[in-house]
Write a structure and sequence with these properties.
Length: about 425
């Protein structure tokens, strides 16, 4: 081979190498094997759009939808809804937000009925509504976020009336609102997200006004807004979610500008946005939810699916609805993310709720058709081995399973066939 051909061949190989390297850099990150269980209207959910999911102190899962509040005990759903002329029921069926206070009380934000407090002792609700004749009432009846700080204060973010702090002793509210003539006031009266960080700073996400940090001593706000001429500014002014990870970093989700990582010291933002040419990028720029699980994985809910941040590679693995896969997300429009005490990851969407336990995937393969090794529920919350080598698997709602791999059998213990007091088994330990 002459020198010219050799050089041409080397050039072609080098070019091909660059092309392959570029392609590899854009290759999608492989997601984990995730088998989602669905809780939709087909299973009795009152309505498809799930805006918020929490777990209370008794272990119940509460799901707020656009048509009622649902309580899931692992087997059955119970619906709470507004009843005309009954002031002890929900004031409004459209639920935006639920928070569980330190004392176990559930607080709910509704679309047109203000703030509700659930009274467990008599299964009723107390309403806190806007009253134009009462200066100490809630500032607006459209409540988008309810939050409790470490001091026990209940904060209420409204869409139109700004921010409220509840005085639990008197039932009155202190208001923090936007003032055009005051640059230190709340930047917008549409409050969509809240966070208290580990240093006690209160962060407020707004629609149209970006992010704000509150000075609790003065009641003033420092604003962080999008600046088209500054690529290190917040990527968008509609802030839907704020989250502090275990390393103390502040993540900010915007509705059109993707995800931001905030450097508090410098006041600058690192942006993570969707790039159609990069399959490792965020799947969609409409970010509604951010959550870090018990193992440290950061999850981001968007209108284009669930994203798992992979810091080692600087990209995201995507989990999206697939028409041909019944175990995929029920819908790619993710509204909320939560992990319960048993390790189950809950994902709210516009087509119901999804649950996934990292441990359950291995057991799901035991449940293939034609085998006897079928668990009573896919939501596995605890696994342990007895001294005699028996495998016990506790489930959320399906009771306790004794797995005998040698015999190829599974025996189930639940409230109906044993003395097990509750089918929600959160831990399994051998007798000492």
């Amino acid at each position: 081979m002459d020198a010219k051909r050799l050089l041409q061949g080397l050039a072609m190989c080098l070019a091909l190498g660059w092309t392959l390297a570029a392609s590899a850099n854009q290759a999608a990150l492989k997601p984990r094997t995730a088998l989602f269980d669905h809780l939709t209207v087909e299973q009795g959910l009152s309505q498809s759009v799930v805006h918020t999911i929490v777990q209370d102190v008794q272990g119940y899962i509460w799901l707020g939808t656009q048509e009622g509040l649902n309580r899931w005990d692992g087997n059955d759903l119970r619906l709470y809804e507004h009843v005309y002329n009954d002031p002890t029921t929900l004031s409004d069926n459209y639920i935006w937000s639920i928070t569980v206070a330190d004392d176990g009380t559930l607080w709910l934000g509704t679309d047109a009925g203000g703030l509700n407090r659930y009274n467990r002792q008599d299964d009723s609700f107390t309403h806190f509504r806007h009253d134009e004749n009462d200066a100490g009432s809630l500032s607006h009846d459209r409540v988008r976020v309810v939050y409790q700080d470490r001091l026990g204060n209940i904060w209420v973010g409204t869409d139109g009336g700004g921010l409220n702090r509840l005085d639990a002793a008197t039932g009155t509210f202190e208001h923090f609102q936007h003032d055009e003539s005051d640059a230190t006031s709340l930047p917008s009266n549409s409050v969509l997200a809240m966070l208290e960080d580990r240093n006690g700073n209160l962060w407020v996400g707004t629609s149209g006004g970006g992010l704000a940090r509150m000075d609790r001593d003065t009641g003033s706000f420092e604003r962080f807004a999008h600046d088209a001429d500054n690529p290190a500014s917040l990527s968008g002014n509609s802030v839907r979610s704020i989250y502090e990870d275990r390393d103390g970093r502040i993540w900010v989700g915007t509705y059109q500008g993707g995800l931001n990582l905030f450097d508090v010291a410098s006041g600058s933002f690192q942006r993570f946005m969707h790039d159609p040419a990069d399959n490792r990028s965020l799947s969609n720029n409409k970010v509604r939810a951010i959550y870090q699980d018990f193992n440290g994985a950061l999850w981001v809910g968007t209108d284009g699916g669930l994203n798992e941040w992979r810091p080692a590679s600087g990209g995201f693995a995507r989990y999206q609805h697939q028409l041909a896969d019944d175990a995929s997300l029920s819908d790619s429009r993710v509204t909320t993310i939560m992990q319960d005490r048993g390790g189950v990851l809950w994902v709210g969407t516009y087509v119901g709720a999804n649950s996934w336990n990292y441990l359950s995937d291995a057991f799901t393969y035991f449940q293939a058709e034609g085998t006897a090794l079928r668990l009573s529920s896919n939501i596995v919350t605890a696994v342990n081995e007895s001294r005699s080598g028996e495998i016990w698997a506790g489930t959320y709602g399906g009771g306790l399973n004794l797995i005998d791999e040698n015999a190829g059998e599974t025996r189930t213990f639940n409230r109906g066939n044993s003395d097990l007091p509750d089918d929600r088994v959160m831990a399994v330990h051998p007798d000492q």
